[in-house]
Amino acid sequence: MTKETVVELDSWRLAQYAYQVPCFICEGPNQFDAELCRHCCAPMALSQQAKDPKVQPRLIGTIGPPGVGKTVYLGMLIDMLSRQMSGLQMLARGAFSVTLQQSVIAALSSCEFPAKTPSEPDRWNWVHCQVRAPKQKRPVELIMPDVAGDALLEEVDHPNSYLVVRKFLTRCAGMLLLIDAPRVAKGTAEQDFFTMKLLGYLGELDAGCGVEWRKRPMALVFTKADQCEDCFDDPERFARMHTPGLWHHCQERFPTHRFFAAGVVGGTAYRQTRLEGRVRVPLRIEPRGITQPFEWLVHSLR
Ligand SMILES: Nc1nc2c(ncn2[C@@H]2O[C@H](COP(=O)(O)OP(=O)(O)O)[C@@H](O)[C@H]2O)c(=O)[nH]1
Ligand SMILES: [Mg+2]
Ligand SMILES: [Zn+2]
């Protein structure tokens, strides 16, 4: 027995796939319902949130060698700015923007440091936020990813190996460049070499982007300064003494730069674990100099 019924065709749904949404970072076309860009793995939510042509988000890079403290610094910075009642205030846009802060603070509050950032871009945390300065009428929209140091290293050594890193750094409006203070104080030159390589790489990214890289502001932050007190006293002098190559490079090539010192913890100890062996753990959280580099950077943005 056959019944005559009207069956509604669902093919109209396919029409939505004909319309491609450009990725905010690499501008590659993506389907409207993609979660991550299929070209560079940046979250497609950034494109949705940045639809208003009047408010275009600025990109801020937090870069440095693996293990320098990027994840811990960024997580703590966002936590402090989103809680403080005076000075710069930050408001996360989108649920994904809270994940970095949440994971860093959860680790620190259980007396651990967060796990190493995976080198696969689809597992990085991105933060899209509004930052409001006390005397500014309009908030500034910023996008800040927590990039893996290994990926940065790979892209600097072999350009075009990490599309997302290249596209992102090309469009960055300002940069937080992190340097491991205790390591440079010990006299190892590897931090100095890496940062100089990175600055050389940035200088070559100029083609096709607005402001020349040398004119963009760069905050150079000595991390883990809780382990070398003299770095807090005068970060500029510390740079001249321990990273002379970087110091000269900045004097010559980056007119808008400043050195800072920051520390997230008040002391560290070692814990013996079954799986990872001896791991460093924070004893207490005692943030110092965390917001100053970021405040300077936001005020120096062109
Ligand atoms: N003493 C001290 N150690 C830190 C601090 N921040 C990070 N560390 C250490 O540096 C390691 C790497 O930090 P992480 O943020 O994961 O580095 P990333 O690879 O640059 O993201 C941590 O596991 C800690 O052992 C800090 O403020 N003070
Ligand atoms: Mg990390
Ligand atoms: Zn993309």
What is the secondary structure topology, with strand pairs?
Elements lengths: L11 H4 L4 E3 L6 E3 L13 H5 L8 E6 L6 H14 L5 E4 L6 H11 L15 E8 L7 E7 L2 H9 L5 H9 E9 H5 L4 H14 L14 E6 L5 H5 L1 H8 L1 H10 L3 E5 L1 E11 L3 E12 L2 H10 L2
Parallel strand pairs: 3-6, 3-7, 7-8, 8-9
Antiparallel strand pairs: 1-2, 4-5, 5-6, 10-11
Bound molecules: guanosine-5'-diphosphate, magnesium ion and zinc ion.
The site of guanosine-5'-diphosphate has 22 residues, from helix 3 and strand 10.
Structure characterization notes:
- This protein has helices at residues 12-15, 45-49, 70-83, 99-109, 149-157, 163-171, 181-185, 190-203, 229-233, 235-242, 244-253, 291-300, and strands at 20-22, 29-31, 58-63, 89-92, 125-132, 140-146, 172-180, 218-223, 257-261, 263-273, 277-288.
- By secondary structure, the protein is an alpha/beta fold.
- The strands form 3 sheets. The chain has a 7-stranded mixed beta sheet, sandwiched between helices. Strands 1-2 form a two-stranded antiparallel sheet.
- Strand 10 and strand 11 form a beta hairpin.
- The protein binds guanosine-5'-diphosphate, magnesium ion and zinc ion.
- The site of magnesium ion has 5 residues, from helix 3.
- Residues 64, 66-72, 113-114, 116-117, 149, 223-224, 226-227, 263-265, 268, 280 line the site of guanosine-5'-diphosphate.
Labels describing this entry:
302 residues, 34% helix, alpha/beta, two-stranded antiparallel ribbon, binds magnesium ion, Rossmann fold, 25% strand, binds guanosine-5'-diphosphate, binds zinc ion
